[in-house]
Amino acid sequence: MAKRLRMLMRMGNLTRTGQVGDGREEALADYVLAHAIPGDVDDVIRRIDTYAYQHATLINIGDEKGLLLDAAVRRVRPRLLLELGTYCGYSALRMARVMPPDARLCSIEFNAANASVARRIWDHAGLADRVSVLHGTLGDDGRTIERLVTEHGFGPGRLDFLFVDHIARAYLPDLRRILDLRWLHPGSIVLTDNMKVPGAPHYRAYLREREGTEWRTREHHTHVEYQSWVKDVVLESEYLPTTAGPARPPTERNHR
User: Fold this and answer.
1) Torsion angle of alpha carbons 66, 106, 82, 226, nearest 10°?
2) CATH classification of 61-255 is 3.30.70.360, yes or no?
3) Is S-adenosyl-L-methionine found in the keyword set (predicted)?
């Protein structure tokens, strides 16, 4: 409980910098490299969870909500995934563990130190060739979007799975940017964390207004990461319109 209270007191720093402010993110990378079996993604995930429970709470999706992320990726079998909010790379580890062998995941992180921590952990887990992190934001005047297009193959109708877990005020603007780019296709899934704590009311209202026409959303009632007394909600939204962009060629769709 005391760890959670200290975390809440540092929320302002988290919002500004993406880090708690006491060095726990770098310490996590050191801990993983010292204790996790190299090349063993399961063991790296286990060690991160152990660190969060026994040493310092982390703001990744955590083990309970992580099961929802695992299940969604397994069900969709996406070939191109985008994550908004890398933090220390934990959720990307979970997605990479269950996504198809030929899938690629790009993660966007606005804090350069976090991006460095994630790369160290992914390299140790043996995922450097399947997962990429870009330092930036979707709102940085097109720089990050251009890199996603030119370096990672993003384009109309190509994005199968989007995981949103960064700054709550950016949830809706970033979703709208992706819609404007027409990257989603009918059946694309958007999974969004922290719908109750800290919450993103404008994003949630946007989806509710379009329920059944542009989106079909399920609410998963769960708990804030690494504890069981503060409730949280994860949204899982399927994109519906047939006007989302060019359909995949039949060979690609059937490959899933």
Assistant:
1) 20
2) no
3) yes
